[in-house]
Write a structure and sequence with these properties.
Shape: globular
Helix content: 25-40%
Number of helices: 4
Strand order of the largest sheet: 2-1-3-4
Strand content: 15-25%
Order of helices and strands: HHEEHEHE
Number of strands: 4
Structural class: alpha/beta
């Protein structure tokens, strides 16, 4: 649950691609949670939709998670981290909306289906 957490935006320091393990160097409430997300086979994201996209706190989390997932690719010319070092393979996005939001799904897949993530699914509540 991220409600009430202090969450900063990515500052582009690229620290996550420099070490042996993809770790974010920003000091805020979500950083330890980001590392923990990689240690579960399935990540469930529950979110509201505002203007066709994630609510602002979740946007920041998605941005930071996306940058960490890129460290498992050759993005920016880096040597990719091994996907065998993490468990995450699936993301389930539970969306609080009465109707399907195509733009949210398209953008979320672009940002999150990389590196170790093999599937992303969406459930509307």
């Amino acid at each position: 649950l991220i409600r009430g957490m202090r969450i900063k935006r990515c500052n582009g320091c690229a620290q996550c691609i420099k070490g042996d393990v993809p770790v974010c160097s920003i000091e805020d409430d979500i950083t330890p949670v980001l590392s923990d997300m990689l240690n579960h086979e399935t990540l469930e994201i529950r979110t509201d939709v505002l203007d066709g996209w994630f609510a602002m706190p979740m946007r920041k989390v998605i941005e930071r998670l996306s940058n960490i997932l890129q460290t498992f690719t050759d993005a920016g010319g880096n040597d990719p981290h091994s996907i065998d070092d993490v468990s995450l393979r699936k993301i389930v996005v539970k969306v609080r909306s009465e109707s399907k939001v195509e733009s949210l799904e398209t953008d979320a897949v672009k940002l999150l289906k990389m590196g170790p993530v093999e599937t992303i699914s969406f459930d509307y509540e």
